[in-house]
Fold Olfactory receptor.
Amino acid sequence: MENQTVLYMLVFSGLSDLPSLQLPLFLVFLLVYLMTLTGNLLIVLLICTDSHLQTPMYFFLGTLACLDMGYSSVTTPRMLFDFHTQKRLISIQACITQIYFLVFFASSEISLLAVMSYDRYVAICHPLHYTQIMHWKACVLLVLGVLMFSMLYPLVHVLFLLKLTFCTLYPLQSFFCDLPQLLLVSCSDTFINGLLLFIFAILFGGGIFALTFCPYIIILNTIMKMSKAMRSKAFSTCSSHLTVVFIFYGTIFFSYFHPNAKTNSAVDKVASIFYTVLTPLVNPLIYSLRNKIVKIALKKVVCSVL
């Protein structure tokens, strides 16, 4: 440590080193970002203005759309800035701040997906008591609980990151500040950081994963006892949510747990693009294209504008 120089700036490896690709990549991801903001903002506006969408299910969907806008805004603007300047430099403080908000929005999304699974469970398995269980006060408290948990969880990682020293010129093999990547470029002992990351991933990640998928075991069992017409309607209300869940969890699991996850940086970057940039884009498309009520509300807005 005595002969090492403490660094206060880090370098991203970026998506590509080719100068000829910087402008095309900038334009592509700028378009994706604008489409993400537009699609999610449209979902929020539809839910706020259409009385048919002012139910607990769509309240959670509107919350998810807001989280998607924030989640995308943590990484994409920074990536666009690096495409424009081609410097890819970030301060340690800014990097840790980005990690905080990235973990905050990611944990908020997976927690909210678990809440949405519970909402579908109550709606399908206990329809007569749905309005009594999922009243507005309960919905607001569930969302506030998700946000409070998601604010405190990354704070633990941040407090331990602030104790680390960075003194290697090895670049972050990503286009954003990722917690495992940041630990790799530290010259301090990161055993506690890695242990906390592993324990929290098992306890909180595994717990939320179980809370998300376990209700669907009961839901599927209930659906199979329904008539064909009711079964089709029940499947349609769950299919959009399940699609979003599988995309989000699938890309994250592939990014962090696939074979050679620490050595194949190109594959990691592609997977990172999916769960940080593309997932917030496809979520509103999935819910709008697979939901008849949302499509009807969207047609009304388009017709009123035209």
